[in-house]
UniProtKB/TrEMBL annotation:
Molecular function as annotated in GO: glycerone kinase activity
UniProt feature coiled coil, ranges: 284-318
Protein name: Dak phosphatase
Classification via Pfam families: Dak2 (PF02734), FakA-like_C (PF13684), FakA-like_M (PF21645)
Keywords: Coiled coil
Gene3D superfamilies tied to this protein: 1.25.40.340
Listed GO biological process terms: glycerol metabolic process
Domain DhaL: from-to ranges: 7-198
PANTHER family hit by this protein: DEGV DOMAIN-CONTAINING PROTEIN DR_1986-RELATED (PTHR33434), PHOSPHATASE PROTEIN (PTHR33434:SF4)
Length: 537
């Protein structure tokens, strides 16, 4: 085969997604950090699956329509750093092919150059030994790829190049070499390309019947008995093409199945809907297969009832609003009490997508929105939201843990000039000390240190500093590394789900004995993976 049309490209992409899904757990297991972190396989899979949803909604499979679906779908499904970078790879790739009816080997090869430029441009400090290296290897071998006689030999060469890139990643990142693994993102890109090759070689059966969720069951809030459906959900959507009567009926039936108080109508290509439901995310996903979101409004009726807020009351637009990512219900309550307007559940192992964050930003009635990602693996997705929201000013405060967000919110002034407020937040983050304590989930090597399973691991200001089986010992060594600890006044302790009463007692006795002038404030956070999150001010 020497030419590919839009329909064929659609199924290439879907086969690549299927192959990635088959290896998702393997890619997740390549995590080089001995703590539960954002799952690369899950993040990349979610990104690709959203692209497939866009493709499946196409009535007209022209090349441009397929390219737009891949570009928009991967953007809205992007989760974590790996997902965001993957979406930018496809953004560059699709931009290079726009306007073509068919693409040949040479077109496909040179699209890798555009993919490399766009993806590198999306990352402020590109790191080699990652998925970026894999796409760079392809871009640097365009001439060799262009010489292939057909797509069968083309993808054989693509896989050969990517295989070399994957094997080279440990030579570029010491932490990969220390752990004895290759980069998960680069390996994921290899499996996507392998899926392309399988389809080209005649394996055309595709099964995407694998469901993924961004919020585990344990994080879903219970609904009060007197309120059957908790969220008042309103969407305005511009459809890709006019909906058929069957599609309209399908959406109406879907809305009635998942909620009540349904209002649904179409004017030209604009869909307006209103529904009370417990799963607003499902409504958004359903409509994303039909078009693009123009406006999203989600109100928590449970909270409205508790605060005696009338549903139809007009609220004056605030100057500044806040969206923050939280790993648990307990921490979500702390953040809301401090003035956070919208909380997105997410964090370690469950990175929210660009779409999740955008929904939250759109739902805040304010001119300026400050987004606190509270995890280094979510910062890129938050920045992507800032680029896509047009009717509000979105500022990303690059918090890497929830403690930094809590400290920032204590200094929050909703009426302050947004640029000045951003400076205040960044200054607070630079001044506070944060400690995150977890346990190793496996034997590993980290920064030259041999880590044993179930040891305590301590991160001071987001940097790994100590490990030990003795909790008191690991606390002592960590606090010795804090500058000007004697000048600190308050220590905030957020207790996680896996913390034991003995550990809590050890922590309190340690502080009272070694640092009696520090006032302890303790909160039940309920977060998983990290028994203790600490803020020192």
């Amino acid at each position: 085969m020497k030419k590919i049309n839009g329909k064929y490209l659609k199924y290439l992409f879907m086969k690549g997604t299927e192959n990635l899904l088959l290896h998702k757990d393997e890619i997740n297991a390549l995590n080089v950090f001995p703590v539960p972190d954002g799952d690369t396989g899950s993040n990349m899979s979610a990104t690709m699956l959203e692209g497939c949803k866009y493709l499946e909604s196409l009535d007209n499979e022209t090349m441009d329509n397929v390219l737009d679906s891949i570009k928009n779908g991967t953007l809205m499904g992007a989760r974590g750093n790996s997902g965001v970078i993957l979406s930018q790879i496809f953004r560059g790739f699709t931009d290079a092919l726009k306007g073509k009816i068919e693409v040949g080997v040479k077109d496909f090869a040179f699209a890798f150059k555009s993919a490399k430029e766009v993806s590198y441009g999306a990352v402020m400090k590109p790191v080699e030994g990652t998925i970026l290296t894999a796409i760079r290897y392809l871009a640097e071998n365009v001439e060799v790829l262009s010489e292939q006689k057909d797509f069968i030999s083309f993808f054989e060469e693509v896989l050969s190049i990517l295989d070399k890139a994957v094997k080279d990643t440990p030579n570029m990142l010491k932490k990969l070499k220390d752990a004895g693994v290759v980069d998960a993102g680069a390996k994921g890109l290899y499996y996507i390309a392998e899926g392309f090759s399988k389809y080209i070689n005649g394996d055309t059966k595709i099964d995407l019947n694998i469901k993924t969720t961004s919020i585990p069951v344990e994080e879903i809030q219970m609904i009060p008995e007197d309120l059957k459906f908790q969220y008042c959900t309103e969407l305005i959507v511009r459809t890709f093409e006019s909906l058929s009567s069957n599609e309209e009926n399908e959406i109406r039936s879907f809305l009635h199945e998942i909620g009540d108080s349904v209002v649904f109508f179409i004017q030209d290509n604009i869909v307006k809907l209103h529904v009370h439901t417990n799963n607003p995310g499902n409504v958004i996903e359903k409509l994303l297969t039909k078009g693009e979101l123009l406006k999203v409004k989600i109100d928590n009726m449970k909270e409205q009832h508790e605060h005696f807020i009338e549903k139809e009351k007009e609220i004056e637009k605030k100057k500044n609003g806040v969206v923050a990512v939280s790993p648990s219900d307990g921490i979500s309550k702390i953040l809301r009490d401090l003035g956070v307007d919208e909380v997105v559940i997410g964090g370690q192992t469950m990175n929210p997508s660009t779409a999740d964050l955008k929904v939250a930003v759109e739902s805040v009635n304010a001119e300026n929105i400050f987004v606190f990602p509270n995890n280094s693996n979510i910062i890129l997705a938050a920045k992507q939201v800032a680029e896509t929201v047009k009717d509000k000013n979105v500022y990303v405060v690059e918090t890497k843990n929830v403690q930094e967000c809590i400290a920032s919110m204590i200094k929050n002034n909703p009426e302050e000039d947004p640029e000045k407020l951003l400076g205040i937040f960044n200054e607070v983050i630079s001044e506070v000390d944060t400690i995150s304590i977890t346990r190793a989930v496996r034997n590993a090597k980290l920064l030259g240190e041999k880590i044993k399973k179930d040891e305590y691991l301590v991160f001071l200001n987001n940097k790994f500093v100590e490990h030990n089986f003795d909790f008191n010992e690991v606390l002592s060594k960590t606090f010795e590394k804090i500058d000007d600890i004697d000048k600190k006044e308050i220590i905030t302790l957020i207790v996680g789900k896996e913390a034991t009463p003995i550990e809590i007692n050890i922590f309190e006795r340690f502080i009272n004995k070694k640092y009696p002038d520090l006032e302890i404030e303790m909160y039940e956070g309920g977060q998983v993976h990290y028994p203790f999150l600490v803020l020192i001010e």
